[in-house]
Each structure stands twice: as C-alpha cells, then as structure tokens.
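Reopening this ticket.

The earlier resolution said the output was attached, but the attachment link was broken on my side. Pasting everything inline this time so it's all in one place.
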Amino acid sequence: MPRPARAGGRADVPGVTTGAIPLHRRPLAHLTVRARLLTAVVLLAALAVMITGGTAFVLQARATDARMDNSLARAVAALRSVQAKGDPSTGLPFDSVKSVLYAGVLNRVPGKNEGVFALLNGRPVYWAAPETRAVHLEQDPDLVAALAALPPDAPAVARTVATPVTQYRLIAVPVLLDGDPVSGLFVVAFDRAAERAGLRATFVMYSAAGLAALALIAGVAWFVVGRMLRPIRLLRDTTRRITESDLSERIEVTGRDDLSNLARTVNAMLDRLERAFGSQRELLDDVGHELRTPLTIVRGHLELLDPDDPDDVRATQALALDELDRMQRLVDDLVTLATADRPDFVRYVPTDVGRLTDDVHDKARGLGDRRWVVAARADVTVQLDAQRITQAWLQLLANAHRYSSPGSTVRLGSEVAGDRLLLWVRDEGLGVPPEETARIFERFHRGQADRTSHGAGLGLPIVAAIVHAHHGRVFVEHPPANVGPGVVFVLDLPAVDLVAGEPRPVPHLVENR
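Inline output:
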C-alpha cells in the first residue's frame, strides 16, 4: 500500500530525490582540498582581471567617444565662425549655401579616422583633395542615404550611425540662407570602429598578459597551497600508519601557522591516546591479576571443602567473604577513579576548614593505636567538596597508620599559604624511598613495603584524582634527618572564596610539621 503524503507536504515520487545533495554528487566534491583552493584562487583572480579589464575598457571607450564628440563640437563652432565672417574671397556675406559649404569643407582639415563632406539637396559634394581625407564618407551609400533622410531643421547633435561599411560617430549641421532655396548639410564624421581598434588591440594585449598572470598565479598558488597543506598530508599519512597496537607515529611539524598548530594539537592528542591506551592495557592487566587471585583462592578452598566438617565450612565461608569484600573494595575504587573526570565528581560548597580538620581527626582516631595530633588548624572558609577531601585525607591517614608502628605519632594539619590551602599528614613510619616517590600515585603501583599487603595500589591514585578534580596537586615531603623519620603528604588546593574565621584553640598538641 503506498505511503500517504504528510499534511502540508507531498507524497514521495519514485525517481525523485529531495533534501540535501549527496556528497558524491556535489560539484568539486571529488577534487582534493589543494585543487579546490587552487580553483578558487584562479577563479577569483580571473574575476578580478575581467572586472578590472572590463571597467578600464568601458572607461576608455567612453573617453574615446567624448574626445570625438568634443572634436565634432569644435567643427560646428568653426563652421559657424566661417559663416559669420563671410565669403573670404569678397569679404561680403555668403550669397549661397554652396559657398558656405565650400568654405566650411576647405576650412576643416580632417584628422586620423575622420572625414568631412557636404550635401546639397541630399546629394554629396566635396572639394578637399583625396590625400587629405582619411575617410571617404561620400563612398558609403548607406551613410549618404541616412543623412539625406534627415529633415532640414534637424538639430546639430552628435550621433552614431552604423552601416555595413563601419560605424560612424558624426554630426550633421543644416545650412540654410535666405534667398537661396537650396538646403545644405555640413557633415563631419569619425570612423568609430577604427578609433576603437587601437583600444581593442590594447585590451587584447591586456587579456594575453592577464592569462599569463593567471598561469603564474596558478603555479605559485599550487606550490604555496601545497606547502600550507603539507601538515594535513602528513596527518593523513600518519593516521594511516597508526594501528591499535602502535600509536607511536607522530607528525613532523615545521612552522608556526595555524596548520602547524593543528599538527601539534594532533600530536598532543596522539600522546594522550597512547598514554590512555597504555593505561587501559595496564589497567586491564592489573585488574585481571587482582581479580584472578581472590577467585583462585576461593575456587581452591571450595574444591577442597569438606561439606561434612562444620569447622571447615565456616572457615571457607569466612575466607570467601573476605576475598569477596576485597574484590568489592577494588571495584569501588575503580568506579571512583572512572568517575574522577566527570564534571559532577566534586560538588563545591562553603566549608569550614577548621571544623573539617577536627572531624577528620575524630575519624582518624578509630583507625588504630596511634597518637593522633592536630598540629595546625586553618580557621577559614573555602569552597571545596568536604566529602571528597575527607575521603582523600583519611586515605593518607590510613596509609600513615599502615606504615607506622603502634604508639607512634601521626600529625595532621591545615594551613593557608597565600591563595593556597594546604592539608597535610606526617607520620613516623618507614617513609617513601626516593626512587618510589614519582610512582606512588600511579594506579596499581605498590612499593616494596606493599608486596605482602592486601592493598590493590589504588589508594593514593584516588587521592591524586580527588585533588586534581579540585585543580590542586598532592606531593611528598621528606623531613630533615634531625627532625626524625617519616614522611609528609601534602594536599595543595586553591583557596577558592577564602573567608577568614575566628581563631579557635587547637584542642590537641600543636607541633610543627
């Protein structure tokens, strides 16, 4: 059944396409970017040459017509002057139209491409020597017929007359005298086509020069555009060589233009992708290893389980639950790290740093037998995510508890240094070897002291992710040897919207870190 047309529209007609033109059917879609740019440059240059040449030709043609009209006007003025002075042979006024025309023709010396003659009662007469006349107007019967058809009182204005011989720009001056019934016509004309011939020759040469210039522009543009698009060609070739297992290819960049900057940006993107894929492979390997171990332990104990022995069942159950809890913690940590780049990972609220310091201290005391000391408190209010910062701070305190001996002192504090908020933890434990300092915040990295622990190596990476989400950083300080053993972990955060509060006494021992 055919599909009905939509209201206000039209039904689909077989063989008729609507909407956008497919890319492969669009003009120039099959050309390369270099060819498209070259085509655009050449077309624009050709258009500029045509507009410039056409405008110049029109202006020069108008100037030529104006020069001819000016000469024709002077010819009329000269005839009037001759007629006013009278017959030069007698000094008396002219007594016939023929004598006026004779004097006028003899007084006019024709220029190049110019002719002069007279008509008496519509019939041509002339007196100038043949060698002085460049154009023989009387030999063009169509011109003579057109002039004879003019009425005796026709105005003496410049006009254009085209005949099969050529095109004329002329002026015809009627000559009449009282007492003489003859009507005369004094004619001065230019061969307009001949006058413009030189102009046309000039513009033929201009067109040839324009074509040569377009060819030169095309050659230069082909070279320049090719150099400009070289980073794109390198980008294309590089991306073709990149595979899922090899992201080491990079684009060779030379120059400081926009395309070179694009190549640098792509190289930076490839660096990030290579790191991301490397981290992803490492993550999958480490996650597989971390999950495989508890699964193997649970499977082994279940295979050796004696269902008739209640003690064995209870022991295996406890072990399986412990391993499942460890896997759950691993999954929770991975989820935390996976969401660290989301915009809603942290939620800023005004936070009393002094109260936050005391709350974290109270929670830390439940971690175990240590001497927990608030060594400094910043009584200020800043914008931060108190829950996330508490999570990161407690992770540092948990690490301090893990790597210090029972009864040792663990100090924590908060300070403001300029526009930075510093939250820190110092323990008296084993410290961090210098060779491990640069790697302790990497995922699944575990130092030598962690080899026998149950940690997955995600605690400090979570701390780093939380701090980076706050646009801060986390780093390690090693106290001087005379201060004692241990290490200091510092959360360096921007003090956003800092507001100083009323100072309060520190309820515990205050010591320098």
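Reporter confirms the inline version is readable. DSSP finds eleven helices and 13 strands in the chain. Residues 432 and 487 are 7 Å apart (CA to CA).
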